[in-house]
UniProtKB/TrEMBL annotation:
Chaperone among keywords: no
Main location as per UniProt: membrane
Entry similarity comment: Belongs to the ABC-3 integral membrane protein family.
Record's bilayer topology term: Multi-pass membrane protein
Protein name: Metal ABC transporter permease
Biological source species: Marichromatium bheemlicum
Length: 283
């Protein structure tokens, strides 16, 4: 740990990696909580994996791959959301199709990109140590968009997430806010791609919020706790991976996964303890 802290002071690329992890944690804490409570992780997975098509096309045509990823993610989110609202029975089929087609198209574009030896592994699994400064500004801008939209529409999101029918009765345009939620998921996916890549996005998007949900029942409190947990996992994973020279992204996910398993066991034990106390009090 001392070696990591010393390197963090001297090396700009480690400082950039730490900032990238903190910026990504804001998105995964705020939007990840909405994904977990609404139980749309599979949808988020479909959006995430279809992004490779946009990144591959952007590389092929010489455009910033993050812009291609953002466009592909939003288009996929609107397609998935539109089909879910119109034909719920076909929703899982479309998600699976977009998942596969997006990755296939992306790989083909990357393979045919002239004069560009793209590291496909870094797109799939992330490389937080190579995040450029312009990407940090881009991630910061996306975080601002997420926070502003969630802050302005918080009550509507709560209504849509917990009871769509009741929200309709109260005059909330459920379809609009549902599609807006999926667009926020798309933006968050692009945030996390820089840190852990396409394959591991869903883990970082959902695990911190799932851990917070073991102990908290307020949506706002879950968002704050999930953001802090995301910061711990990204910073801790970066520190743990530095000494043994391990890939930072997978190390972050293993740390988050271990914390989730431990938290689930603790939450189960606490629930049994409270049930036993109630039984004794009732007896």
């Amino acid at each position: 740990m001392n070696a990591f802290l010393d390197a963090l002071i001297h090396y700009d690329f480690l400082q950039g990696a730490l900032v990238a992890g903190l910026l990504a944690s804001i998105g995964c804490g705020v939007v990840g909580t909405l994904v977990v409570v609404k139980r749309i992780a599979f949808m988020a997975g479909g959006i995430a994996h279809s992004v490779l098509g946009g990144m591959g096309a952007a590389l092929y045509y010489g455009v910033d791959p993050l812009l291609g990823a953002l466009l592909a993610a939003i288009v996929s989110a609107l397609l998935i959301g539109g089909v879910r609202l119109a034909w719920a029975a076909q929703e899982d089929t479309l998600i699976g199709a977009l998942w596969a087609i997006g990755m296939a198209v992306g790989i083909l574009f990357i393979a045919k990109t002239p004069g560009y030896a793209t590291d496909l592994v870094s797109l799939l699994f992330g490389n937080i140590l190579l995040v450029p400064e312009r990407a940090l500004w881009f991630m910061g801008g996306l975080d601002v968009v997420l926070l502003v939209v969630v802050g302005l529409c918080y009550r509507q999101f709560v209504a849509v997430i917990f009871d769509e029918e009741f929200a309709r009765l109260r005059g909330v345009p459920v379809s609009f806010f549902y599609l807006l939620l999926l667009c926020l998921v798309a933006v968050t996916v692009v945030l996390l791609i820089q840190v852990v890549g396409l394959i591991l996005v869903i883990a970082l998007l959902t695990l911190p919020a799932a851990i917070a949900g073991h102990y908290l029942h307020s949506l706002g409190a879950m968002m704050v706790a999930a953001t802090l947990l995301g910061m711990v996992f990204t910073s801790g994973g970066l520190a743990l991976s530095y000494g043994p020279d391990l890939p930072a992204g997978p190390t972050m996910i293993l740390l988050a996964g271990a914390a989730y398993v431990l938290s689930a066991l603790v939450a189960r034990l606490l629930a049994r303890h409270r049930a036993a106390q109630r039984a004794r009090a009732g007896g």
